[in-house]
């Protein structure tokens, strides 16, 4: 009877030892998985940043730099040497400066240097096989990287500004007097909605305006979408 008792004691001791070691192993694996997931997200943001900056969508580009900065800070806490992300974070500041200056050439230069720093960090961390490059195509197909709001503003001034006051009555001089409703008046109408504006811009515009002579600008779908997006932004801004 004594042998089985000793065997049971040995088994219990082994189980206890393995249960003590398990959390450490789990933490290591979990930390590695967390770092991998984080790097995948950073890679996506890195690609989005390129197209946003290259297409002068400075608001989106600035947003992506904030996401990258936060991601690099998180990554530093998962690396054996937290200081390894410091050069990339420093170069990210140069990217942000180019964005603030709306300098496309400066952005391209700073972005390339940031990409080099990412690869230097990979090599120093033992992940030399992971090489990041300037992306060749957009990382996702369901997002516009052009500044649709800026395009909508330009379309509104170009097509509608001849008759309507688009933004600033003190700086704009429509050809018609009295001028048709301003954009501010339009967005504050109870009937305003993106669908209604889109349907209106798609129509022929007949029997509207002075002498029922409002012209039909014959806008393409992407131009209509841009103007609608701009009007929605004006509406949101006026509601704040």
UniProtKB/TrEMBL annotation:
The keyword Repeat does not apply. Residues 1-24 form the signal peptide. It comes from the Bacteria. Keywords: Heme, Iron, Metal-binding, Signal. The keyword Signal applies. Residues 147-235 form the Cytochrome c domain. Transmembrane segments: none annotated. GO terms for biological process: electron transport chain. One of its GO terms (molecular function) is heme binding. InterPro entries: Cyt_c-like_dom, Cyt_c-like_dom_sf, Cyt_c/b562. This is Cytochrome c domain-containing protein. It comes from Bradyrhizobium guangdongense.
């Amino acid at each position: 009877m004594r042998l089985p008792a000793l065997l049971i004691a040995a088994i219990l001791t082994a189980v206890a030892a393995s249960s003590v070691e398990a959390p450490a192993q789990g933490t290591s694996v979990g930390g590695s998985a967390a770092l991998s997931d984080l790097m995948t997200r950073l890679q996506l943001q890195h690609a989005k940043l390129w197209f946003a900056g290259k297409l002068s969508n400075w608001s989106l580009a600035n947003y992506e730099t904030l996401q990258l900065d936060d991601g690099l800070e998180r990554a530093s806490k998962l690396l054996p040497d937290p200081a390894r992300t410091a050069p990339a974070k420093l170069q990210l500041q140069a990217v942000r400066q180019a964005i603030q200056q709306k300098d496309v050439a400066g952005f391209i230069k700073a972005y390339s240097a940031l990409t080099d720093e990412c690869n230097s960090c990979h090599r120093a961390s033992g992940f030399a096989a992971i090489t990041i490059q300037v992306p060749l195509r957009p990382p996702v197909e369901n997002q516009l990287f052009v500044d649709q709001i800026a395009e909508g503003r330009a379309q509104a001034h170009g097509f509608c500004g001849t008759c309507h006051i688009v933004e600033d009555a003190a700086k704009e001089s429509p050809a018609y007097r009295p001028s048709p409703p301003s954009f501010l008046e339009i967005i504050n109408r109870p009937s305003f909605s993106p669908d209604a504006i889109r349907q209106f811009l798609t129509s022929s515009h007949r029997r509207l305006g002075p002498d029922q002579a409002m012209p039909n600008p014959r806008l393409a779908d992407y131009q209509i979408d841009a103007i609608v997006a701009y009007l929605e932004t004006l509406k949101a801004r006026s509601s704040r």
